[in-house]
């Protein structure tokens, strides 16, 4: 199999780069083991306030709308966090405008939304909270097994019966100025949360649940769908095991499922994420990148990997693959000519790209740009 570019990792960074390259007319493949950080995504792109123009375009073509307004968003435990660029269904508001009387509505039998912790958090902020549950016959099947009562399964049903949810909440609402609901709406149709807002005479805020994240899964589905629509090849559930290198270039990679095939490309992009996605791995002696054995920027003394204070930024989270200024990966001190790196596998080695999801997008756009420039030469 031969492509213009092969991308290892189908999270936010891999998909963003894939969309840019595919939109530029390149033939690409994304190979991705499985879950990415998008499955846990809050819906806010930390370190971004405004979307880079290309991100705006690529995401809106995929059907993803973004917004930012200065203020805060509500966190799952009733605290507030400064706003960042967010998906359309994430509420951002000036903190002072959050109501004083709050109705928290959960679904009967759903344990991945911590309504009482949420109420405690809000009460510490001086708000008065009332918790109520709604029970809808459409949920009965899921309620039979707690393992079925998960955000995505519920969202599949909620997208069909959101009008009933509005009716139920209107019956519960007394004099509250704010209603907080679990973020289990808008899996297939991102406009459902705003339709619920329109139907309820109070501010409606959706608060995060335990994973999987409904806005994150929707984002992944839309980016992937658009990528495939543009002709990209998505090899889901496969893992790049090893790579063949020759004279400072990557010739091909081999995957677990296609172990008799060399997957060749002019350029490769490593977007395999951090420890969480196994893009980086650690043992007592060091930190490594498992596919290419790339050079990692980390403290040699293990005692320096952690900060004794749990609440501090942990130094090991900053470690990542070393790159040159064009995001070429470095191996044994030398840049690999056709291997680029983007996203969380970089750790915080490239602070100019920001942090978290903002960094994943910015570095992916930059790496794709460098790949396009290199392929013109
Ligand atoms: C749990 C969690 C939640 C987060 N939430 C937020 C948030 O809400 N907002 C925010 O701004 N930032 C968040 N972040 C930071 C996060 O790093 C970025 O948001 C971003 O999504 C990372 O994207 P990525 O594509 O670089 O990596 P990932 O999303 O980790 O994707 C990497 C992908 O590569 C695949 N992969 C790895 N190795 C191989 C291999 N050998 N072969 C094939 N595939 C492979 C993995 O299976 C995975 O699908 C979160 C991070 C984590 C870990």
What is this entry, summarized?
The chain has 377 residues and is α/β, with parallel strands linked by helices.
Topology:
Elements: E1 2-8, H1 12-23, E2 28-32, E3 44-45, H2 53-61, E4 66-67, E5 72-74, E6 80-82, E7 85-87, E8 101-107, H3 115-124, E9 128-134, H4 140-143, H5 151-172, E10 178-182, H6 192-199, E11 203-207, H7 214-229, E12 233-236, E13 240-246, E14 249-255, E15 263-270, E16 281-283, E17 286-288, E18 296-297, E19 320-321, E20 328-331, E21 334-341, H8 356-376
Parallel strand pairs: 1-2, 1-15, 2-12, 8-9, 8-10, 10-11, 15-21
Antiparallel strand pairs: 3-7, 4-7, 5-6, 13-14, 14-15, 16-17, 18-19, 20-21
Helix pairs in contact: 1-7, 1-8, 5-6
The protein binds flavin-adenine dinucleotide.
Residues 8-14, 31-34, 36-38, 40-42, 44-46, 239-240, 271-273, 276-279, 291, 343-344, 356-357, 360 line the site of flavin-adenine dinucleotide (FAD).
Bound molecules: flavin-adenine dinucleotide
Largest sheet: 8 strands, mixed
Query: Per DSSP, what share of the residues sits in E-state strands of 2 or more residues?
Result: 25-35%
Unreliable residue stretches: none
Tell me the structural class: alpha/beta
The percent range for helix content is 25-40%
Alpha carbon gyration radius? 22 Å
- Our measurement of the CA-to-CA distance between the termini, rounded to an integer number of angstroms, reads 23 Å
Mean pLDDT: 95
CATH topology of one domain: Rossmann fold
Count of DSSP E strands? 21
* Envelope shape: globular
* Helical segment count: 8
> In the CATH classification, which architecture of one domain applies?
3-Layer(aba) Sandwich
Give the SSE string: EHEEHEEEEEHEHHEHEHEEEEEEEEEEH
**CATH level 1 name of one domain:** Alpha Beta
């Amino acid at each position: 199999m031969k492509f213009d570019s092969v991308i290892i990792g189908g999270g936010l960074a891999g998909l963003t780069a894939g969309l840019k390259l595919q939109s530029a007319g390149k033939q690409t493949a994304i190979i991705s083991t499985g879950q990415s950080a998008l499955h846990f995504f809050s819906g806010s792109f930390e370190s971004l306030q405004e979307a880079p123009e290309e991100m705006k375009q690529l995401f809106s073509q995929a059907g993803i709308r973004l917004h930012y307004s200065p203020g805060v968003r509500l966190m799952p435990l009733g605290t507030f966090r400064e706003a960042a660029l967010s998906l359309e269904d994430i509420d951002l508001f000036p903190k002072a405008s959050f109501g004083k009387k709050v109705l928290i509505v959960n679904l009967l039998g759903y344990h991945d939304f911590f309504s009482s912790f949420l109420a405690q958090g809000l009460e510490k902020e001086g708000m008065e909270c009332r918790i109520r549950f709604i029970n809808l016959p459409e949920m009965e099947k899921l309620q039979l097994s707690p393992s079925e009562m998960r955000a995505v399964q519920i969202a599949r049903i909620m997208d069909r019966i959101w009008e009933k949810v509005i009716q139920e909440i209107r019956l519960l609402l007394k004099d509250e100025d704010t209603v907080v609901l679990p973020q289990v709406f808008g899996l297939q149709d991102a406009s459902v949360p705003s339709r619920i807002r329109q139907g309820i005479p109070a501010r409606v805020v959706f608060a995060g649940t335990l994973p999987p994240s409904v806005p994150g899964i929707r984002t992944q589905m839309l980016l992937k769908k658009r990528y495939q629509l543009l002709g990209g090849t998505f090899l889901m559930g496969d893992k790049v095991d090893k790579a063949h290198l020759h004279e400072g270039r990557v010739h091909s990679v081999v995957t677990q499922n296609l172990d008799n095939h060399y997957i060749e490309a002019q350029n490769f992009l490593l977007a395999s994420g951090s420890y969480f996605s196994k893009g980086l791995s650690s043992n007592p002696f060091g930190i490594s990148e498992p596919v290419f054995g790339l050079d990692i920027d980390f403290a040699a003394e293990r005692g320096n990997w952690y900060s004794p204070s749990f609440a501090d930024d942990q130094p090991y989270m900053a470690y990542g693959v070393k790159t040159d200024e064009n995001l070429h990966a470095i191996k044994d001190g030398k840049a690999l000519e056709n291997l680029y790196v983007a996203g969380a596998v970089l750790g915080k080695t490239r602070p100019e790209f920001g942090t978290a999801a903002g960094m994943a997008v910015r570095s992916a756009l930059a790496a794709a740009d460098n790949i396009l420039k290199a392929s013109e030469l």
